[in-house]
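[Discussion] Sanity-checking designs against the backbone

I'm trying to build intuition for which residues belong where. Below is a structure token string of 293 positions. I'd appreciate it if someone posts a full sequence so I can compare it with mine line by line.
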């Protein structure tokens, strides 16, 4: 499920900060340039950051995006990370999720994730994603579709458009893997094993000793398996994956801190961490599918 807990509808939704100074906007019908500019001004950066050398080819993200729109790709979500370094805010990393063609009424929508910056923090990156309507949340697909990285040199716009269609072609394989997960039932102990591995992915570097001398995450594996809505009930690998992913990424679950203090887990909102953790959870589900198969 996604990167950023957006709302879906005919009106845009502006979420609060999900990292330092970062905002996100999603609109299912597509976003206009003035809407995107308010949330992610670095998409419209007037040039490259002063730290970049002459070898750095400046191709503004908005030019690439306009080229994609001519090919019937529409932006449905934008996010931008900010910077504490003076003068970098208008050049920093940003993320755009796009869909191709007209809106559909299926349970999940195929999305292409485009990441870029103009301060040297990122090349153009393209990944495959899914958006699940029932929870208004987006997945990042693991290794089913090859990730593309396009450096800031040469005909960037043509390469990004070509890459978008390459990612689009890979969604047939994504659908096959998704259906295989939906058809695979898990036993309760297998669900707990999946959630326990997800805890290590999310809190591994922050797990602290509990009062019994063992290590403990702020929440339990059982909590990660909990459903947030009736539509999420079920015991297939897909159902379990969706519940665990949403609880890990969105946070908000009641837990305990290092000294036993009550807390609510935080959402994973940093662009890089959100994408990498989403990918890791998908790969975890894929490994579970292979083992069960």
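Best answer:
Here's mine. Compare freely.
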């Amino acid at each position: 499920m996604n990167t950023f807990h957006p709302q879906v509808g005919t009106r845009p939704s502006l979420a609060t900060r999900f990292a330092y100074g970062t905002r996100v906007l999603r609109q299912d019908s597509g976003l206009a340039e003035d809407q995107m500019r308010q949330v992610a001004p670095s998409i419209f950066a007037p040039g490259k950051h002063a730290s970049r050398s002459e070898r750095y080819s400046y191709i503004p993200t908005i030019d690439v995006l306009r080229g994609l729109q001519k090919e019937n790709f529409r932006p449905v979500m934008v996010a931008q990370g900010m910077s504490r370094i003076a003068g970098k805010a208008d050049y920093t990393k940003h993320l755009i999720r796009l869909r191709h063609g007209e809106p559909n009424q299926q349970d999940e929508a195929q999305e292409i994730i485009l990441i870029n910056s103009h301060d040297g923090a990122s090349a153009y990156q393209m990944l495959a994603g899914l958006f699940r309507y029932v929870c208004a949340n987006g997945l990042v697909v693991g290794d089913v579709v090859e990730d593309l990285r396009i450096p800031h040199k040469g005909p960037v716009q043509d390469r990004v458009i070509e890459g978008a269609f390459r990612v689009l072609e890979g969604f047939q394989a994504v659908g096959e893997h998704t259906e295989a997960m939906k058809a695979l039932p898990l036993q309760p102990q297998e669900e707990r094993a999946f959630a326990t591995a997800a805890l290590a992915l999310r809190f591994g570097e922050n797990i602290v000793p509990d009062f019994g001398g063992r290590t403990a995450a702020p929440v339990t594996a059982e909590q990660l398996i909990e459903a947030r809505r009736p539509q999420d009930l079920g015991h297939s690998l897909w159902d379990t994956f969706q519940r665990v992913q949403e609880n890990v990424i969105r946070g908000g679950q009641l837990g305990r801190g290092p000294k036993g203090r009550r807390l609510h887990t935080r959402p994973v909102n940093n662009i890089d961490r959100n994408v990498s953790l989403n990918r890791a959870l998908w790969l975890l589900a894929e490994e579970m599918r292979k083992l069960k198969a």
